[in-house]
Amino acid sequence: MASSMRRAAAFSAIWRALTASKAGPALSQRLAALPRMFWFTVTGRYDGFGRLFAISLATLYVASPIDLFPEAVFLLPGLLDDVVVATWIAGAVLSETERFLLWEQGRAPGRRMKPEGVIDGEVA
After folding, report:
1. Can you say whether the dihedral through the CA atoms of 34, 66, 81, 5 is positive or negative?
2. Coil, helix or strand for 71?
């Protein structure tokens, strides 16, 4: 159940990225942001460590010869699981780079951007 929900989330992220309005970041901006995103994450200024770690593990899974369904034994399932993981990676990278670019635009020096929908206030 959880596995199919993750796949659905990955496909919906890719669909949103592909059908997004032209106002979103261009692919060239997203690719140029990757090194900065990794650097800000490693130095602790950006909070994307968990997501980048998951993307890195998924990339290693696709690239490694060790697989859940080896292609040599199970041709179709072996390819399909790699396609699903690669699709999730693409959607996650598109989503995370857009999130990073929004964070980068809205951050003040030394401060993290507040999550969307958060309103400053005081507790009385």
Report:
1. negative
2. coil
Question: 83 φ, ψ to 5°?
Answer: -65, -40
Between the CA atoms of 11, 86, 84 and 56, what dihedral angle is there, to the nearest 10 degrees? -100
Q: Rounded to whole angstroms, how far apart are CA atoms 46 and 103?
A: 8
For residue range 21-66, what is the model confidence (pLDDT) as tens digits? 556 788 888 889 999 999 999 999 999 899 999 999 999 988 887 7
First-to-last CA distance in the chain? Answer: 44
Cβ-in-10-Å burial (0-12, 13-18, 19+) of 87 comes to middle
The residue assigned the tokens 């159940």 is 1
Q: Where are the domains of the chain?
A: 27-106
Q: Hey, how many other C-beta atoms are within 10 angstroms of the C-beta on 100?
A: 24
Cα 23 from chain centroid (whole Å): 19
